[in-house]
Structures are given as C-alpha cells and as structure tokens.
Write a structure and sequence with these properties.
mainly alpha, 14 helices, 74% helix, 0% strand
C-alpha cells in the first residue's frame, strides 16, 4: 500500500473513532467532570506512569543481557525515545528506532536487539492476559455490571488469546534453541531467490534468532517474566488511580479488565493511539462499571494525556539531544526495518523536532 493512501486511511480511522468517542458527550458536562477530578490522585497516577518506563528499561536490560552488556541510562533513554516516536509518527517506528539507537550506543547487533522487542511484546501480551484471567475467572461478579452474555464472550476470547500467547512463547523457545539450523534452512530459498540475496536472508534470520538468546537461559527468562508483572501492575495502578480520580469506582483488580481492553485499543494503528485508546476506555467503563458518558469521556482524555504526553515531550527533548528530527528518526526506522542500517550517527545539524 502506498504511504499516502495508508496515511489517508489511518486519518479516516482516527476521525471515525473520535466521532464514536464523542457522539454522546456533552462538552460542558465533560469539562465539569474534569474539573471535579481529584488532582492528588491524578498526580500520583502521573508518578506511577513515570515509574513504569523505568521498569520497562530495567526489564529490557534483562532481555538484552545474553546479547551484551547495556547501561540502564541508555536503555531508559532509548525506551523513552522509542515510545515518543511511536506516539508522533504513523507505523510505530519507535519499535525499530529504539533497538537501533541502543545498539549504536552499546555496540550491539541492531537485528539482535530488535528481536528482544518481539520477545518483549510477547511477554507483555502473556502478562496482560494472565492478569485479565485473574479478574475474569476469579472475580466474575465484580460490580455486577456486566451482563452474563458479555462476560461469557470476554471469557471466551480471553481464553483464545491466552492459548495463542502460550503457543507463541513455545514457538519462540523452539526457534531460539537452534539459530544456526534456522539460518541453514533459510539458505534453501536459493531455489527461488538469487544466491546473494538468499545468503543475506539467511544471515538476517540467524542473527534475529540469536537475539532471542534469553529464551535459552531459564534464569534470564524467569527474571524478565518476573519483571513483567510489577510493570503491568504499575500500568494497572495508573488506570485505577485516574478512574478513581473521576469517581469511576471499581476495585484495583477490575483495572485488569480495563487494561486488557486498552491493549486492544492501543493495537489499532492510529497516531498516538488517539481515538482508539479513548473509545476502548469509554466502552469498558460505561459497559462494565456504569460510568456516565461525560465522566467516561473526561477520564479517557486525561488518562491518555497522562499515559502519552509526558513521555512524548521527554522523547522529543532526547531526540534533539541525539541530533535527530522526527523526519530523521522515521528515516532511520525505515532503513533499519529494511536491513539498511546507517553505520554512522545522524549529523548533528539535524537538530530539533519537526
């Protein structure tokens, strides 16, 4: 699909989701609900969100350890830059930019570093689903707000997703066990591709799987899994605190349900998850916890701002310190994703954010 067509489609999707989000809201009512929100709880949610990014960097260090040593400051810096780039640019370029910048600073293989991002996302999915199951299956009567049919549907799809995550982890473990064999198998594409290109593909596959080396070290993998739970419990705390600030009352464990639906919303490829994030939160708290439309809209807007605005501003500043513009960051991500990774830093003249 051509970039311009994709951009138009994403814009239309974003506008459609925002229209759905605001369709029943009264602006005056939303403003009144926002003004009456508990500022102390919102400030605490902001602090918790900041801690979440530090925990992300710490866990990423654990995943990167089998590839090579990394500094926490570098992991945190590039994590913030990556999330900011994905918030501001279409196509989530931060998922590629983040490992590339870290690899450049720490002298690691960019492809192997990128492989840890794939594993990181799978660990995220598995953790969210386990927390979601803890709510759905252990406390199905939470608030008594969900209908039996809606809850049954949630249980079914939660079970399907959980099984998929477990299967995915097993597949990655199997592939990571023999990277050199996978590389040799990739050489067989010589039957349909030119020999030189086939060797490039084989080298990429083997290097990528080597990036999953943590899967062959049970202690490292256990550490990464262990760090995933406090990370997502922290994210759930930010959701719960913001909801409580807007007087949308449910237990802390019920925030696992809200979080699971938000993960689905964030997966929709709108810039900064605008529209998708808001609609997902609004749907969940109005359907399961009987929040009013105006209160749900106000809480969704503030929660999105807490979740995305600080890291985006910090990321822009750090990008400038790296000597990058947003256009430069997007170009690096595109080149790195295609295997054409620049060998030298971007010129310092490309400073500022576009």
């Amino acid at each position: 699909m051509r970039p311009r067509v994709r951009t138009v489609l994403i814009l239309l999707l974003t506008l459609g989701l925002l229209g759905f989000f605001f369709r029943k809201a009264d602006p005056a009512g939303v403003w009144a609900e926002t003004r009456s929100a508990d500022a102390g709880l919102l400030a605490l949610a902001l602090v918790v969100t900041g801690v979440t990014y530090a925990m992300r960097a710490w866990r990423w260090q654990s995943l990167l350890a089998p590839i090579g040593p990394t500094r926490f400051a570098t992991a945190l810096r590039t994590t913030i830059i990556g999330f900011a780039a994905s918030s501001l640019l279409p196509g989530r370029p931060g998922e590629v930019l983040r490992p590339y910048l870290l690899a450049r600073r720490e002298g690691l293989s960019p492809t192997s570093a990128f492989a840890t991002i794939i594993l990181e996302r799978l660990l995220d999915l598995a953790t969210v689903l386990l927390l979601f199951a803890a709510f759905v299956f252990m406390a199905p009567a939470e608030g008594g707000d969900a209908t039996a049919s809606a809850l049954a549907s949630v249980k079914f799809w939660g079970g399907v997703s959980a099984v998929s995550a477990v299967v995915g982890l097993g597949l990655l473990f199997a592939l990571a066990g023999h990277p050199e064999r996978l590389g040799r198998a990739a050489l067989k594409v010589e039957r349909v591709l030119p020999e030189r290109l086939a060797h490039v593909v084989a080298a990429f596959v083997e290097t990528f799987i080597r990036g999953l080396a943590v899967m062959r070290r049970p202690r490292r993998l256990a550490a990464a899994l262990a760090l995933s739970f406090p990370l997502w419990l922290s994210i759930a705390a930010g959701i719960w605190l913001t909801s409580q600030a807007f007087h949308i009352t449910f237990s802390y464990t019920a925030s696992f349900l809200v979080m699971a639906v938000l993960v689905v919303g964030v997966a929709v490829p709108t810039p900064g998850s605008v529209g998708a994030f808001h609609a997902a939160y609004q749907f969940t708290v109005t359907t399961f916890f009987q929040a009013s439309q105006d209160r749900a809209v106000g809480a969704a807007i503030v929660l999105h701002a807490i979740s995305f605005l600080p890291v985006t501003l910090a990321g822009i500043y750090l990008l400038m310190r790296e000597g990058l513009t947003l256009a430069g960051a997007r170009r690096i991500a595109r080149n790195a994703d295609g295997g054409d990774v620049p060998a030298t830093p971007v010129p310092a003249g490309e400073r500022g954010a576009s």
